[in-house]
Amino acid sequence: MELTRRHALAIGAAGFAAAGLPAAASAAGAPPVTETMLLTGADADHTVDWDFRVTAGRRAGEWATIPTPSNWECHGFGSYHYGGDLVPAEKGDYRHSFTPPASWAGRRIFLVFEAAMTDADVRVNGVSAGPVHQGGFYRFRHDVTALLRLGEPNLLEVTVSKESADNSVNDAERRGDFWNFGGIFRPVSLVAYPAARIDRVAIDARADGTFAAQVTLAGVTAAARLTAQLRRLDGTAVGGTFSVAVASGATGATLTTTAAQPPLWTAETPNLHQVELALASSGGVSWHSTVERFGFRTVEVRTGDGVYVNGKRIVLKGANRHTFWPTLGRASSPRLARLDIGLMKDMNMNAVRMSHYPPDAYFLDLCDELGLYVLDELTGWQRRYDEGVGAPLVKALVERDVNHPSILFWDNGNEGGWNTALDDDFGQYDPQRRAVLHPWTTFSGVDTSHYQTYSSTASKVAGTTIFMPTEFLHGLYDGGAGAGLNDYWKLMGGSQRSAGGFIWALVDESVARDGVLDTHGSRAPDGILGPYREKEGSFFTIKDIWSPVQPANPAYYDSVFPASFDKTVKLLNRYDFTNLRTCRFSWQLLAFPLPGGKTEVLSQGQAGAPDIAPGATGAVTLGLPADWTAADALRLSVTDPAGREIAGWTWRIRKAPDFAARLVKPATTGSVTATETATEVVLVAGATRVTIAKADGRLTGVRRGSTPVSLANGPAPAGGAATLTAFSHFRDGTGWVVQCDYSGDLTSVRWRLDANGWLRLEYRYHATGDHDHLGVNFDYPEGRVRGLTWLGDGPYRVYKNRLRGVTPDVWTKPYNDTATGASGFAYPEFKGYHARTCWAVLETTEGAVTVVAAEEGLFLRLFTPAVGPDPQNAVVTYPGGNISLLDGIAPIGNKFHGVASLGPESRPNTATGDYHRTVYFRFDG
Q: Which GO terms describe its molecular function (predicted)?
């Protein structure tokens, strides 16, 4: 069973707990510990079957078994529902028999639910365990000491109502913009305490080493003493023991001490400590002991300045995360939590917002361990809890999560879903007094407003209030997320009053049902990642832009190697706490193959890590061999102190003309024949036959032997018009030329078929002003395409406002018709714009069509991508035809903003006059 250190603790109440069956009796003389008996499985990966029936929907009225924890919809029961579509008649009845150990006699025993959706009525041996719990995402417990028969079978019965009897709970939880589920979806356990116990611990551990623990006690019937010892996680003691006397009947005590220069917790340096607590009688008899984990760190919101951790201003780079898996709903596991956190850190994120409810406790454990800043959120999506039902939920949220150093803020609902009467409740249970946010507006000195335009973002970061949007660049259908981020981050990444922001959202929330992935139309496919965590194109863009190590010279963002390179790379350290001397730098010299081969590493080595402090600029010196210029490309990789690659750049030393010269060899023998009719000129070189129309100078047909190749109707201008004014053809050495001149936007076209079968196309066009597309188009039947191999920046498609994150190499991908986030879910998507293409081989049912660029900067457009329903502003334009050779491509909008509301990279292409390009084609069977 995969557990974090605190997973065992999370499945019980406060105190040390053992996961699984009851813990063995304490060793002689050792303080008694909390013992935990799991009644469900520990998580969605490790389940236990309970008896179950649902009252409505699929399999209604049928007693069966269901794995717990789980959401019942995902196991064939009830019905699937998205927010707002209430189903008050749908309830689930659970039954489970269990036998608590006889050794628990004299203990206080609680039945603990980590969460159940949404109202939970609990009975033990036919007797109510307590009031119906309302609120689907929160831990609750019932004291069942008097209801249990120790050492004998007991019956647990639970009725879970999918919708709440309290309308404000439905408003806050069930009418939100997310999937609704039902069931016991987090673990259930019995937790047995000694009669005198440490019930809860709330810690305030500051960066200056001061430590305070507010300890809630119960069952103290005589004078006692509470003793503590701080330790590192490896067991090393930090200072000596410290203690406080406890009077008979006391329900609380506070312990304080000061640690000398403890290692501090940040997302970059997730140093954790633990405190061992022991409650004993005044005579020294041990009553109870427990362990709590924490981190020394101080969080400040400095009004009109920024968010500070340990006295250092930080910038949050994060995503909004729902707890979600297509086959599990909201049920999860440490394995899936670790997967999501790893993917966020792979994107160089340092923060996550819990949208729109508190996560599983083990997710927060892993944020503590691996290093992510967290915004922990009370549920509420444009509607709120009433105070009566909301106050206990705030208490449950904060009491469970208070000791996580990863949590920087509490969120009181989302987008108007806050009840201001609850704002001061958070501080009642949090001795750290973390700030409370109202995501969508300004509160606690932080403006969290959502989905600002580029211009309004510029105004906000130049203002007097800290700006930290808890949602921005909505990622519907591949629009937003990475698209537009480069412009936004130039504003948000370096402004004094910017505290960063959170992209919506981490994953496409698609339910696996009826053999398909259901995203509920356009309401759920918002992810940077697919539903099974497939990496979409924005993943790599975000990784690049949010890397804490950035080239200081803007020229290094281009994949073509700067001519001024002197074996050093100037770098900017955008870490908040980490010196680059703790990172690892490595380089490779690469040779790119011709079609059909593999990229070869010619040589590689390590570079000495430069001493560059956070926020400073320096340089890394690469110890390249003397013949480094003979390589095709240089790759530089940067790995963080934990061994995770945080940056990687590949620069081409060779340029498009170099690769064209390798592939396209002029014929030395042979000749081309030309035949002219009233409507066309037919050129023949061996098995290659090319037909050019006399009416417009466009390619009308190609044959390779007896096989037709359907590339045709080009070059047609991607924008504007062209009227043929002159047409001629003539022999040219071993080849034959067709020359076409035009009036209009296209000015000239020259075709030349060489005796070896290479067809050269030279074209010129003139354009000024703003254009979505610059270049020429062809037609080709999409249904005949099977795949693509190409040398260019890939493997993902690009937009004008999402050019970062792709890498030059030789890439191969099969044809697919993925509509990003909506259908197909095959990545990288086949269709769209491909950046800086040097050569490409289109595999078709008619053979291979090779395209070679003689100049740099060619965008190869392949067909028009499919789009999901109702894309709103998340659209991109494509030119006519379906294969294009382009000098300028279009940007993409996002759900809330068309391209005109985004930044400079989202503007149209400003044409500069005359354009010329040479492209070679070859057709092989």
A: beta-galactosidase activity; carbohydrate binding
β-pairing verdict for 273-281 and 286-294: antiparallel
pLDDT score of 565 more than 90: no
Q: 31 pLDDT band (50/70/90 cuts)?
A: low
**117-172 residue pLDDT tens:** 999 999 999 999 999 999 999 999 999 999 999 999 999 999 999 999 999 999 99
pLDDT digits (tens, 9 = 90+) for 881-908: 999 999 999 999 999 999 999 999 999 9
In 728-783, which ranges are continuous DSSP H helix? none
Inter-residue contact 584 to 646 (CB < 8 Å): no
255 contacts 226 by C-beta, under 8 angstroms? yes
Decide if 732 contacts 752 (C-beta within 8 A).
yes
Q: What tens digit of pLDDT does each residue of 532-563 get?
A: 999 999 999 999 999 999 999 887 777 677 77
d(CA 797, CA 803): 9
Q: What pLDDT score was predicted for residue 553?
A: 85
Q: If DSSP codes are grouped into helix, strand and coil, which group holds residue 362?
A: helix
Amino acid identity, position 831: K
Strand runs (DSSP E) across 666-721, as ranges?
673-676, 680-685, 688-693, 699-704, 707-709, 712-717
Nearest to 541 by CA among 489, 468, 469: 489
Query: CB–CB of 182/174 below 8 Å?
Result: no
* 779 burial type by CB count under 10 A (0-12 exposed, 13-18 middle, 19+ buried): middle
Query: Whole-angstrom Cα distance, residue 268 to residue 371?
Result: 6
Query: What are the structural domains of the chain?
Result: 7-193 (2.60.120.260), 197-294 (2.60.40.10), 306-545 (3.20.20.80), 561-654 (2.60.40.10), 663-766 (no CATH), 777-924 (no CATH)
* Length of the chain (residues): 925
What's the CA gap between 721 and 777, in Å, rounded? 12
pLDDT tens readout for residues 261-282: 999 999 999 999 999 999 999 9
Predicted TM-score (pTM) of the model is 0.96
**DSSP three-state, residue 317:** strand
Mean pLDDT, range 609-633, rounded to an integer: 96
Backbone angles phi, psi at 489, to 5 degrees: -75, -25
CA distances to 703, 764, 780 from 692, in Å: 12, 17, 16
For residue 574, give Cα distances in angstroms to 53, 325, 580, 586.
54, 33, 10, 19
Q: Which residue has the tokens 């057709």?
A: 923
Name the strand (E) or helix (H) holding 565: none
